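User: Hello, can you help with two protein structures?

Assistant: Certainly.
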Amino acid sequence: MKNLLFIFIVLITLASCSESSVKEKETKSSPALVEGDWLLEFQLSETNSAPVNVIINKNDSSYDIFFSNAAEKIKAKNVVIEENNITIHDPLFNTWFEGEIVNPTKIEGMWYKNRKENAIPFIAIHGKSSRFKKPENLKKTNENISGKWEVDFSKNNPDNHYKAIGQFQQVDNYVTGTFMTETGDYRFLEGNMYNNNFYLSCFDGSHLFLFKATLVHGKLTGVFWSGSHWEEPWVASKNDSFELSNPDSLTYLREGYEKLAFSFPNTNADTISLTDEKFQNKVVIVNIMGPWCPNCKDETAYLAELYSKNKDKGLEIIALSFDKSENFEAASANIIKIQKNFSANYEFLIAGKANKIAAAEALPMLNHIMSYPTSIFIDREGNIQKIRTGFYGPGTGSYYTRYIEQTNDFVAKLLAE
């Protein structure tokens, strides 16, 4: 009898342990992240981090994750959770997160760009808070940096120096805005102004930007970080009349050349040339771009819509993609993602390696390629009517709106000729 009682107790104990193990396994395989606002901090160094707001929503058995920069919300479409591990892949760029769900309100891990060697640690914490931590000794009256600023990056380094326009909007301690250069813009920036200290950041899936500065006697003096690999000083002063060089004057047809000419393969490896019958007696926009380039992404969104509205009127668009990879299959896969994401139903060609020297060699009739993107507008006779260097995206506000209106009118006039 005692033996039977002992066996019964053992069986009960084993069943209890087994049930406990199953429950533990189920808990591990089904982590529950708290929904709502999160703050993601990229650790650029031991003392410096770049914060970005994140929104996490439950969607059936998975989660929708959005990276938030001011008015922009970027959705991560590939979120995979296995036990307490989470991976997030960007839908367009070759970047991804690998993290551990420490508990329902905390994730920590690494963000990778292109390859494992390019890694930045991160911690994500649930809770609604300011993008940058509010200091305890915050003054009741706060400096306000709203307006237009003349900016010099790397002013004392001639090899790296360039000018920019800083356009900022501030309400209380909350700041949005961007920097515009002759080659494009730094997209949607968001941050805070505390006392005389200025902070902005942005994460767009490919680029991670952090700006810090101090305002003294009307002058901003600070540092700009791009990921953990680039750091440079910048200074700025308010200047409502400051303008950059005309973007339509920076790239032009070299002496001795009359027209643009090229032949490159598309993603099906078919050679496409500007002299093909498809482009004859058409208005053609040749867009020099790269699938790794956020400004190019912004322009592709615009061009896809422009093409949809005007293809039946005689508009054609050819994107010349310069990729980080020299492998044709990899370069094709990268550009196909762009095409599908923006429903861009025009030609995309694999034009070469993504550097400005290679682009200039591929298109020797141009004086140089100083920016991705660059767009070339060609009339029905095959003559170049305009070359636009760079692109000011939706993060630039009125600059973007004005450019879109002007370009729509310009294309309409070319189509009417």
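That covers the first. Now for the second protein you mentioned:
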Amino acid sequence: MATYDEDFDIQTKGENHIIDITEDVATIVKNSNLTDGIACIFVSGSTGTITTIEYEPGLLEDMPEAMERLAPKDAVYQHHLRWQDGNGHSHVRAAIMGPGITVPFRAGQMLLGTWQQIVFIELDVKPRNRQIRVQLVGE
């Protein structure tokens, strides 16, 4: 087994900005010279998430609406009361969604479904520069 690590940066526009990072990750898998294994895609930080969706206009609207139902922005959050930064809901949403995913790859190709893309979702209330970490384990 071998490992390969590579990071890349993205700039977000703030809360609910959804960025398709599938090609970035696919390029890393290709450049690694590993053929079969798993890719761990992870964001450092407590107010962003990585997941998979069908990256299409309807879901780009549905995801923020679903997150609002799950952890409403206008609810009372002790984090916000303590720090006065207005992003208590961002931390709760990120904790529910998680900071990363694992995707298998075979013959140098990620094994994603036809309509499945890897996305980063900004959950913080302001634009951020995010570092996405990709670690591959395979052969």
